[in-house]
Design a protein that fits this description.
The chain is an alpha/beta fold. It folds into 2 domains: 1-28 and 76-115 and 160-238, 3-Layer(aba) Sandwich (Rossmann fold); 30-73 and 117-153, SIR2/SIRT2 'Small Domain' (2-Layer Sandwich). Helix content is 37%, strand content 18%. It is built from 11 helices and 9 strands. The strands form 2 sheets. The protein has a 6-stranded parallel β-sheet with strand order 3-2-1-7-8-9, with helices on both faces. A 3-stranded antiparallel β-sheet has the order 5-4-6, covered by helices on one side. It is elongated, with a radius of gyration of 18 Å. It starts with a helix and ends with a helix. The mean pLDDT is 95. Bound molecules: adenosine-5-diphosphoribose (APR). Adenosine-5-diphosphoribose (APR) is lined by residues 20-22, 25-26, 31-34, 37, 97, 115, 182-184, 186-187, 207-210, 212, 225-226.
Length: 238
């Protein structure tokens, strides 16, 4: 099996990464699940649903402000940078569930943000969208239309931005290799991307120190952190 994977990697014309919180863990950004996960200390249903936002928009804004400060003080790590390096050898597309922008800051050229971005905002009612330049003094901030502005991220129960999701499916369907890094793959629909890839004959590789619910579907599971595994992986191409 290992030889087949190596051969497929050598011949690959397009590699798609599906990334999750684990890839930014070594940059100091906590994951959601697992022993130090955010959802252990915070109640997701009080912070990451539209109902909880309307119940207490100030609390939700404070939580995102704190996370944004953490993201701004973090730097892309050797895992993010290895994915950029890989672009020298093969076409690379990154489909990320992360809202931290670290792939783009590392220099990846094609990144689709499936769950939005921590620097983007939108009106809860009208079509206004923008980026946060400086922190708001009064929270929750208001749109010109008078309604509340919210983080432009995907909360539980919400659909993904459809244009981005459709593009993500196309990339998943026409890649030769999909590398799933640092995600528990428990959140839908992002966790269906490996299924689209596999149905179309791609090789699936997982980089995660822990087993995931899709580990048995993988052609290769690398049980290391992304900072260790990704530079090693890219060195295969050099
Ligand atoms: N390197 C690689 N993987 C790691 C590392 C690391 N250094 N540290 C942890 N992991 C793995 C964990 O083993 C786990 O499988 O990263 C995964 C993180 O899983 P989650 O916390 O569930 O994060 P994610 O899969 O991105 O969550 C999906 O859930 O709440 C929502 O919208 C949020 O986008 C997020 C979605």
């Amino acid at each position: 099996m290992f030889e087949i994977v190596i051969k497929k990697l050598e011949d690959a014309k397009k590699i798609v990464f599906v990334t999750g919180a684990g890839i930014s863990q070594e940059s100091g950004i906590p994951t959601f699940r697992g022993k130090d996960g955010l959802w252990r200390n915070y109640n997701a249903m009080k912070l990451a649903t539209i109902d909880s936002f309307y119940d207490n928009p100030k609390l939700v804004w404070e939580w995102y402000n704190e996370r944004r400060r953490n993201v701004f003080s973090a730097e892309p790590n050797l895992g993010h940078k290895a994915i950029v390096e890989l672009e020298k050898f093969v076409k690379v597309v990154v489909l990320t569930q992360n809202i931290d922008g670290l792939h783009q800051r590392a220099g990846s050229t094609e990144v689709l943000e499936l769950h939005g971005s921590i620097v983007k905002i939108k009106c809860a009612i009208c079509n206004f969208k923008s980026e946060i330049v400086t922190e708001f003094i009064d929270i929750p901030p208001l749109c010109k239309c008078g309604n509340i502005l919210r983080p432009d991220v995907v909360w539980f129960g919400e659909s993904l931005p459809q244009d981005i999701w459709q593009q993500a499916i196309i990339h998943a369907r026409n890649c030769d290799v999909m590398i799933v890094v640092g995600t528990s793959l428990v959140v839908s629909p992002a966790n269906t991307l490996p299924v689209y890839a596999k149905q179309n004959g791609a090789i699936l590789i997982e980089i995660n120190p822990e087993k995931t619910i899709m580990s048995s579907e993988m052609d290769l599971s690398i049980r290391k952190t992304s900072v260790i595994a990704l530079p090693e992986f890219v060195s295969v191409f050099k």
